[in-house]
Amino acid sequence: MSILGGNEKEISIQSAQDEFLYTHKGHKIIDAISSWWTCIHGHRNPRIMEAIRKQTESLDHVIFAGFTHDPGEILAEEILKTTNNEFEAVFFSDNGSNAIEIAVKLAVQFFKNKNHSKDINRKTWIRFTKSYHGDSIGAMSLGGESVFTRIFRDLNFPSKEYKSPDCMNCPWDKSPSNCKVECLDEMEQDLKGQSDTIVGVVVEPLVSGANGMVFHEEKFLQRLRKLTQERDIILILDEVFTGMLRTGEWYAYQKAKIQPDMICLAKGLTGGSLPLALTLIRKEIVEAFHSENVNHAFYHGHTMAGSALACSAGIASVEILHETGKENISRIEAYFFGKKKVLEERFPHKIKNLRHLGAIFAMEVVQDIGPDEYLNPIGRKIRNFAMEQGVLIRPLGNTVYLTPPYNIRESSLDTIFEVLENILEKEFTQLP
User: What are phi and psi of 8, to 5 degrees?
Assistant: First the structure.
């Protein structure tokens, strides 16, 4: 995401290695967010860089329509294995928003290809508050009301919005121990009379990222899957952020022990080296496109989809995850657990909702200035102070989060939390 407007001065980066960025002036910065959650093995991982270099010796790119190549086929096979082959097909694109758009179009055409009279009115989608799925029009149509989406609402296709699950700030005043997933009661009631008008629902499983790292319990996904399955509604999981072991399993849906109809992957797929995205599709949906009728084909393609260079990077990234991924995630999770206790004891009146899952850590700072969303100025103040101390974080309003590379050094984690403690020791009005 680039921001057009504002008066912040950009920082020129000369090079990067592991969890470090180096400016033109020689300053070292710890990348505590993996450059928007992509560089999960750190910057310029040697195995990924070598895989890309080796691929340049034979093939850079070829049109992925009527052609194929080994890196694409190998990557697809390896990714399907990580799902225990619960999906039938892989559709290539180049970023998370496109992966979502593809899933949306596939869901719409799935019902049209089936051509059942009961499905002809399926035109509406379900979306959740505090959700974000990308900046393209279709992806924004499925996102919650926010600074990213509200100005473009007139362009969106029909959708019905429901409250997001938020297990740290439950609108129904429930705790995980007594929750019966009341946040889905309204949807279930509505679906009794209009389920045959709904195409599908898109949700980030377990953690809604860009609108505040909002956590929910596995039981939410389990009930949502039951509701959608009983009514033939397509369930698409946006695993662009949560996939590739971010939550401790290959995919968050595996922690919840459910089977979605499609999942979307990007970000950490290539270890942040090159753009690549995948949409994984369940067998029943794929079969609706197998037809002698040419109008049943899925006419969608991106110029750089299936780049051989990006696929080679993806293969190397998956290999690294198999070898050291879970071990590193467990190490980071244990570290976060210890630091959570320290921060809660030291700053009980300045922070709330400390939470962590896998390689994700988040908390809210308690303050009285600005809106309770992305534009809250406290986020910029915290970001500027951290940058002065050599740490890159980008708070989401008053939500401070960390998503470090999985192989980050403990010394770097120590520095990150020292900076956070320095911030919390100050009065927020004193921050730059």
Answer: -75, 140
pLDDT band for 220, please (50, 70, 90 cuts): very high
Position 58, amino acid: S
User: Would you say how long the chain is, in residues?
Assistant: 432
Task: Note the Cα 12 to chain centre separation in Å.
Answer: 26
pLDDT bucket at 211, cuts 50 / 70 / 90? confident
**In this model, does residue 343 exceed pLDDT 80?**
yes
pLDDT tier, 1 (very low <50, low <70, confident <90, very high otherwise): very low
Phi, psi of 375, rounded to the nearest 5 degrees: -85, 0
How do 399-402 and 360-365 pair as beta strands? antiparallel
Q: Quick check: helix, strand or coil at residue 313?
A: helix
Indicate the DSSP class of residue 373.
Answer: S
When the candidates are 3.40.50.1370, 3.40.630.30, 3.40.640.10, 1.10.238.10, the CATH number that belongs to 50-318 is: 3.40.640.10
Q: Residues 12-33: what's their mean pLDDT?
A: 96
Show the tokens assigned to 37: 């959650």
Of the candidate CATH numbers 3.50.50.60, 3.90.1640.10, 3.90.1150.10, 3.10.150.10, the domain formed by 13-45+326-430 belongs to 3.90.1150.10
Q: For residue 345, what are the CA distances in angstroms to 168, 349, 354, 421, 428? A: 18, 10, 11, 12, 19
DSSP β-bridge partners for residue 162: 128
Strands (E), 229-387: 234-238, 262-265, 277-281, 351-357, 360-365
pLDDT for residue 217 is more than 90: yes
Which distant-in-sequence residues (6+ apart) come within 8 Å of 113 by Cβ? Answer: 288, 289, 291, 296
Provide Rg for the chain, Cα atoms: 22
Give the other-Cβ count within 10 Å of 286's Cβ: 16
What is the amino acid identity at position 114? K
Q: Is the pLDDT of residue 353 over 50?
A: yes
- pLDDT at position 116: 74
Say yes or no to pLDDT of 219 above 60: yes
> What is the full DSSP assignment across 207-223?
EE-TTT-EE--HHHHHH
Q: How many whole angstroms separate alpha carbon 141 and alpha carbon 276?
A: 22
Query: Which two structure tokens, joined as six digits, stand for 424?
Result: 């919390």
Coil, strand or helix: which one is 63?
coil
